[in-house]
Amino acid sequence: MMNTSNSDECSHANEGAAGRMPLAGIRVLDLSRVLAGPLCAQMLGDYGADVIKVEPPAGDQGRSSGPPYLDGDSAMYYGLNRNKRGIALDLSRPEGRDVMHQLLGDADVLIHNFKPGTLERWGLDYDTLKADFPRLIMVSITGFGATGPLGGTPGYDGSAGAWAGVIAANGSIESGPMRLGISVVDVSTGLHAALGVLLALQARNHTDRGQHIDLALFDCSLPLLNPHVANWLQGGERTPLTGNQHPTFTPMGVYQTADHPIYLAVSTDRNFVALCNVLGRPEWAADPRFASMAARARHRTELIELITQAFSREKAQELALRLNATGIPAGAVLHVAEALAHPHTLHRNMYVEVDGYRTIGLPIKLSDTPGQIRRVPPAFGQHTHEVLAEAGLDEETITRLQDQGISPEQRG
User: Fold this and answer.
1) Which terminus of the chain has a smaller tally of CB atoms within 10 A, N or C?
2) What is the pLDDT of residues 150-200, one digit of tens each?
C-alpha cells in the first residue's frame, strides 16, 4: 500500500505541533488495557492530549492478544496505542502508588478498566483522590458497573453484548443469534468514554472541578439496538432474526451478484422505482405486491427472489456505482484488505503510514485544529525515565525504582 500521510492531518509531526490541536495541554494517564479504554485514550491523543500509557510490570495484556504479532506485540495493541508515551509502574506496591500520586499532580484525566474494588484497595479510587486532586477527571470502564444485580461481574465485549441483547439482534433463523465480527461493544464504549471526557472537561471550565465518569460495557451496548428497542418500546414488536436483511425496510440487505455480494438500501418508494429502472424491470414498481413499503414487507420473500435473480447477472462494484448514481445507497461488500486499498479510503486519508507504522486515519476532520499521528505505539516502558524525570523524580530514585522492578524500563 502507498503512503497516504499528509502534512495537515495524518502526518508524523514533532511535539510542538500539538500546540495547534484542540486538546493541547491536557494530560491523560491511561491505566486501561486491551480495547475500550486504550481506544478512548488514543482518540484523545490524536487531537493533542499528552497521553501517558501506564502498564504493570507484566505489560498490557493487549500486547499478547494475537496472533498476528509485530516485534513481539499484537496487531491489536498497535491499533489502539498510537500518540502515547509508555511507562511501566507496579501499582500493587506502595512505592508505585507514591509515583502515581506524583504523576497525578499535573494530570487532567485518568482512564482505567480495573475491576470494581481494585483501585479502592490501593487508595486510588476517585473518592479518595478528589480531595488532593479536585480537578481530576476519572473514567472507570467496567463490564456492568459496580452495583446492581450484575454489578462487579467480569465483562467482555461478547458477554456484555449478550446480556444487553446485541447478540440476539444478529443472525438469521437458520444460524440463530450470532456474535458480530467486530468488537462493536468495546468500540461503542471507547467512543462514549471519549465523549464523556470532553463533556467533563467542558463542565470543568465552568466549575473548576473534575468528576467521575462511570461507563459500563452493558450500558454502552443498549444504544446500539436500533431499531429493535424502538420497535419493542413503541410497538410491542419482538424483531425477528433477519440475517442480512433489514428487519423493517425491503429490499435492504446483502445480495449476491455474479462476483461479490452487494449491500442494497432501499428506504423509500422513490428508491424502489429507481432500482426497478436500473435493473430494467419497471413493471415491478407497478406490481401491487411491491408498490409500497408495507406491501414489500409483506411480500419480502418474492421480492428478494426476483432481486437475487436480477443481480446474478451483475458485477457488484459496477452495479453499486450505477445504483449510487440514481441516489440509491448501495455498496460492494469488500474484504478489509480491499476496503483499505480502495481509492476513496486513500482519498479520505483513512489509511496512513507513519515512519513504517500502518494504521487507520482520523475520521474526525477538523478544519482549523486537525488531529495528527505524532507517535507510533510505545514499546513497553519506552518513556519511563523521561516521564518520571518530568514528574520531578531524581536520577537516584528513578534508578532505584527500576532496579526494584517497580518501574522497569524498555525491554530488550
Assistant:
1) C
2) 999 988 999 999 999 999 998 988 999 999 899 999 999 999 999 999 999
Phi-psi region of 165 (alpha: psi -120 to 50; beta: other; left: phi over 0): left
Contact indicator for 185, 144 with CB cutoff of 8 Å: no
Mean pLDDT of 65-86: 93
Query: 139-159, pLDDT tens digit by residue?
Result: 999 999 999 999 999 889 999
Cα distances from 210 to residues 139, 145, 269, 272, in angstroms, run: 11, 20, 51, 52
Among the listed residues 8, 30, 186, 355, the single catalytic one is: 186
Angle subtended at Cα 178 by Cα 173 and Cα 180, rounded to the nearest 5 degrees: 135
What residues form DSSP beta bridges with 360?
Answer: 351
- Alpha carbon distance 234, 226 (integer Å): 12
**Residue 72: C-alpha distances to residues 41, 84, 187, 369 (Å):** 22, 18, 24, 35
Question: CA distances (Å), 393 to each of 122, 129, 261, 389, 411, in order?
Answer: 21, 21, 59, 5, 21
98 belongs to the catalytic site: no
Return the pLDDT at 18. 63
Phi, psi of 27 (to 5 degrees): -105, 130
Residues paired with residue 73 on neighbouring β-strands, in sequence order: 70
Kindly tell me the burial class for residue 53, based on how many C-beta atoms sit within 10 Å of its own C-beta (0-12, 13-18, 19 or more). Answer: buried
Output the pTM of the full model. Answer: 0.90
Enumerate the H helices of 227-342 as residue ranges. Answer: 228-235, 269-278, 283-286, 293-298, 300-311, 316-325, 336-341
Query: Are 371 and 44 a contacting pair, CB within 8 Å?
Result: no
Residue 315: C-alpha distances to residues 255, 274, 326, 332 (Å): 11, 18, 17, 9
Q: Do 37 and 60 contact (CB within 8 A), yes or no?
A: no
